[in-house]
Amino acid sequence: MIRYLTAGESHGPCLTAILEGVPAGLKITEEYLNKELHRRQYSFGRGERLQYIEKDRVKVLSGIRWGETLGSPISFQIENRDWENWEKIMSLLEADRSEKFRLTRPRPGHADLVGVLKFDRKDTRDILERASARETAARTAVGSVCKRLLEELGVQVYSWVVEIGGIEAHVGNLSPEEAFALAENSPVRCPDKKAEEKMVAAIKEAKAAGDTLGGVYSVVAVGCPVGLGSHTHWDRKLDGRLAQALLSIQAHKGVEIGRGFEMSRSKGSNVHDEIFYGAGRGFFRKSNNAGGIEGGMTNGEPIVARAAVKPLASLRRPLRSVNIDTKEEMTAEIVRSDVCPVASAAVIGEMVVAIALADAMKGKFGSDSLREMQDHLTRYREHIKNF
């Protein structure tokens, strides 16, 4: 089993994470992890903090020695470099408490109001600091390790943006590898150059208006063997686990696998992927409407997921709200934020999918070392091919 925990507040001293279950013998470096953190951090539409203040670097505190995992828990630390400006605001000391730091006007669409009611707090900062998407930097570090594990098991995970602010990209017949390569060179992670230009213009327009934009991105995993997940219990179905992983990311409101909602508007004869067999190849499909998952299990085709990201709740032109102390109507707090996080969200989605898939691989081929895990997978692939 692969599991993890993250801790830390958006403006606290650091973010931390602990990852358990990665087999021994996986080669990995901080340089690789930092490269993935960089991909999450820099994209068009991000706020000033991400572009100029925070330059994320991960420090591995345990679980890796001489460039290889040990099989023990891996712990990470990512420093918040803006901490020196927030030390009094986020202080541990009662003596530093000050009314001037208290936030009392919750933002519609954010965790602010629900959080203060649930946890009986009088300051929305007690909620928003942890609810912030800053936490995903820690998840990106965790996901990067899982991505490396999947690579050693023959699985690649890709992502790209397909829509921002209602502007749709057209990927056409590009392979996942081709779409990903184009997205990596796009400021909004979009493989369609014409759509990219329109998306950039829309983000600029939203920023000028003090508004925010959402969108949709795709995550595709290639190389997964048949049979990850299970049909036997609700919590073992892989599509359910992927949906939970993606919806757990801040500001995410929808997930579909394969053609998803579009399939509900079609006839069964038009959407189900017919089965074929080839000597030396085994069973396969010529279409992939199911998005690589049938009955909660992988069917050998690429896993295709799409996630919807809502416009962020932190607006430069804030919406109406109510002061939690006086109950007076007034505008919500203005909190520093992104205009459009969709491009970075695609990278985060890539990471949480990698975590879920690595966990499924460990559940199916689990062992204490990477070499043993690879041996189990090789024998299983041969069995499936010769079934």
Description of the structure:
With 387 residues, the chain is α+β, with helices and mostly antiparallel strands. It has one domain: Chorismate synthase AroC (Chorismate synthase, AroC fold). It has 11 helices and 17 strands. α1 (30-41) crosses α5 (136-152). The longest helix has 24 residues, at 342-365. The two termini are 28 Å apart.
The percent range for helix content is 25-40%
The CATH class: Alpha Beta
Shape: globular
The largest sheet has its strands arranged as 8-7-9-15-10
Q: How much is the radius of gyration in Å?
A: 22 Å
Structural class: alpha+beta
CATH topology: Chorismate synthase, AroC fold
- Overall pLDDT, averaged? 95
Order of helices and strands: EEHHEEEEHHHEEHHEHEHEEEEEEEHH
C-alpha end-to-end distance:
28 Å
The main sheet comes to: 5 strands, antiparallel
Low-confidence stretches: none
Tell me the number of strands: 17
What is the strand content?
A: 15-25%
SS summary, helix count: 11
The CATH architecture comes to: 4-Layer Sandwich
Number of domains as seen in the coordinates? 1
Tags for this model:
387 residues, alpha+beta, Chorismate synthase, AroC fold, four-stranded antiparallel beta sheet, 11 helices, 17 strands
Could you outline the blueprint of secondary structure elements for this entry?
Blueprint: E1 3-7, E2 14-20, H1 30-41, H2 48-53, E3 58-62, E4 64-65, E5 68-69, E6 74-79, H3 112-119, H4 125-131, H5 136-152, E7 156-164, E8 167-168, H6 176-184, H7 193-208, E9 215-222, H8 238-247, E10 252-257, H9 268-271, E11 275-278, E12 282-285, E13 293-294, E14 297-298, E15 303-309, E16 320-322, E17 329-331, H10 342-365, H11 370-385
Helix pairs in contact: 1-5, 1-10, 5-10, 8-10
